[in-house]
Amino acid sequence: MGFTQQITHEVTYMTAPNIETSHAFTTRHGGVSEGIFLALNLGLNRGDNPAKVRENYSRLCRALGILDTDIVIAKQVHGANVEIVTRKDCGQLYAPTQREADGLITQELGVALMVFTADCVPILLHDAERGVIGAVHAGWRGTVADVAGAAARKMASRFGCADIYAAIGPCISKCCFETGPDVAQAMHKTLGQEAESCIQPCGEKFMVDLKEANRVLLMRAGLRAENITVSDECTFCQSDKYWSHRRTNGERGSQAAIIVMRGKNL
């Protein structure tokens, strides 16, 4: 079963079949931004009109039944740092954050974790039994640093998670992610022989499958293959639906992956 498109009267987003709590992989559709940011831009520092970005957040939050003050974000630095956050970390969405992390984890009800992408890999994690969620941003540098595996292992070591489900969302796919030998070599260093399933030589370049690389790394971290779902959509191919940094040469907005743990009263 693949990802499902959810359409409200204000926003359009994707959901994964194996994540059993509120979540979204946003698209470009449904916001109020204009020009190169048309329309659901969630990037806070891309040069968009701040009032329009706030309205975009208001629309997304209404769709998910949360408040923007419930959201926790971090300064993404293409690394492998994963932070455990709580309710005290909420309420700083529109203020510059000093927290540098590419993975966030929480066990607190009602706390929404958000990561931003525009070709990089968004990954949402959920252990329903332990009541733990995670959100991960994995570019190629974060992938070879194994940020996804670091998040899964921290969920296991700190919260006893033994049955984690993962959704690997829309990102640039192997068909469009052409790289130089440096990326291929880094993949080989991290994945060893398993890198062959993620890399296809193309002349002097290489086509790299970041989705498959992260799937392999999540399984190395203890996830069962059947617990991982992978979006088949490519942000570069479908730049009318998703933001693509490569397609636009950086002139773009940002989409987000967001997840929130629900309780009986939430």
What does this structure look like?
The protein has 266 residues and is α+β, with helices and mostly antiparallel strands. The chain has one domain: CNF1/YfiH-like putative cysteine hydrolases (4-Layer Sandwich). It is 22% helix and 24% strand. The chain has six helices and 15 strands. The protein has a six-stranded mixed beta sheet with strand order 1-2-3-15-7-4, with no helix packed on it. A hairpin with a 2-residue loop joins strand 12 (199-202) and strand 13. The model has no long low-confidence stretch (mean pLDDT 96).
Largest sheet: 6 strands, mixed
* Rounded Rg: 17 Å
Structural class: alpha+beta
**Oligomer state of the chains in this structure:** single chain
What would the average pLDDT be, to the nearest integer? Answer: 96
- What is the first-to-last residue Cα distance? 27 Å
Beta-strand share of residues: 15-25%
CATH C-level name: Alpha Beta
Number of strands: 15
- For the record, the count of structural domains works out to 1
Would you identify the regions where 5 or more consecutive residues have pLDDT less than 50? none
List the helices and strands and how they pair.
Layout: E1 4-7, E2 12-15, E3 23-26, H1 50-64, E4 71-72, E5 82-84, E6 103-106, E7 112-117, E8 121-127, E9 132-138, H2 140-144, H3 147-159, E10 165-168, E11 178-179, H4 181-191, E12 199-202, E13 205-208, H5 210-220, E14 228-230, H6 245-248, E15 255-260
Parallel strand pairs: 4-7, 5-6, 10-14
Antiparallel strand pairs: 1-2, 2-3, 3-15, 6-9, 7-15, 8-9, 8-10, 11-13, 12-13
